[in-house]
């Protein structure tokens, strides 16, 4: 997908005004109950709005962000990392959070394993693609939400089997997994919702 800079700027503004605020509220509400109290490492934190919203719901959670590209207006304290190794000692955090990050990673299983090294609980929000249509819809959403910010888009979404394989490679197991209803208002939810999104709480095997 290609577009000129003015078009990308317009798309980014439209996405921010129509989708982003709702997304922050819904995702914060979905992940907040899955987190233990204490230090939260938000991996791929972006602008930090989701972690800040989580902390508003859970004052016992202290977020710190890590990203390959730190945005000047990040809403939480954030540090750069190389996308592979977190500059933290083993067991430095109560939880690690990855919101729509793994499908951008060069090696999702390795990043999951790295998060499990520094945190006892790993909470993931990501996508499951069960068909070619799912992948096309997810690619469109990814492009609209991330291309204006210059995010690399490999469009590497998990199949159900691929997700289980990544968990096995990272020596993690799901304590629970749930859908994320309400991310999009009707009628858009019929296309952009419908089981494409999930949250999961992971622990070491």
- CATH architecture classification: 3-Layer(aba) Sandwich
Give the overall form.
globular
The CATH topology annotation reads as Rossmann fold
| Average pLDDT, all residues | 89
CATH superfamily: Vaccinia Virus protein VP39
The top level CATH class name:
Alpha Beta
> Structural class from helices and strands?
alpha/beta
Largest sheet geometry: 7 strands, mixed
Elements, N to C (H/E): HEHEEEHEHHEHE
Number of helices: 6
Rg over alpha carbons? 16 Å
Count every beta strand, where a strand is a DSSP E run of 2 or more residues.
7
Query: Terminal Cα separation, in Å?
Result: 40 Å
Q: Please, what is the oligomeric state?
A: single chain
The level of helicity is 25-40%
Are there runs of 5+ residues with pLDDT below 50, and where?
7-17
Q: State the strand order across the main sheet.
A: 3-2-1-4-5-7-6
Task: Indicate how many domains the architecture comprises.
Answer: 1
Query: β content, as a range?
Result: 15-25%
Written overview of the protein:
The chain is α/β, with parallel strands linked by helices and 205 residues long. It has one domain: Vaccinia Virus protein VP39 (Rossmann fold). It has helices spanning 5-31, 49-57, 108-118, 132-146, 160-169, 189-192, and strands at 38-43, 61-67, 78-80, 93-99, 119-127, 172-179, 197-204. A 7-stranded mixed beta sheet has the order 3-2-1-4-5-7-6, with helices on both faces. Residues 7-17 have low confidence and may be disordered.
Write the layout of secondary structure elements.
Blueprint (H helix, E strand, L loop, with lengths): L4 H27 L6 E6 L5 H9 L3 E7 L10 E3 L12 E7 L8 H11 E9 L4 H15 L13 H10 L2 E8 L9 H4 L4 E8 L1
Parallel strand pairs: 1-2, 1-4, 2-3, 4-5
Antiparallel strand pairs: 5-7, 6-7
């Amino acid at each position: 997908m290609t577009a000129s800079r003015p078009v990308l700027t317009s798309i980014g503004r439209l996405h921010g005004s129509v989708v982003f605020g709702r997304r922050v509220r819904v995702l914060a509400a979905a992940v907040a109950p899955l987190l233990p109290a204490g230090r939260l490492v938000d991996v791929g934190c972006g602008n930090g709005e989701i972690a800040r919203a989580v902390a508003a719901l859970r004052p016992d959670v202290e977020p710190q962000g890590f990203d390959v590209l730190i945005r000047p207006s990040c809403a939480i304290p954030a540090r750069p990392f190389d996308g592979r190794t977190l500059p933290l000692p083993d067991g430095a955090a109560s939880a690690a959070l990855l919101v729509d990050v793994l499908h951008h990673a060069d090696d999702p299983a390795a990043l999951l394993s790295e998060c499990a090294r520094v945190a006892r609980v790993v909470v993931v929000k990501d996508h499951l693609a069960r068909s070619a249509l799912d992948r096309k819809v997810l690619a469109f959403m990814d492009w609209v939400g991330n291309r204006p910010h210059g995010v690399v888009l490999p469009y590497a979404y998990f199949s159900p089997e691929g997700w289980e394989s990544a968990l096995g490679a990272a020596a993690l197991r799901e304590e629970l997994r749930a859908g994320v209803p309400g991310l999009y208002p009707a009628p858009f939810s019929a296309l952009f919702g419908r089981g494409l999104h999930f949250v999961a709480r992971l622990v070491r095997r």
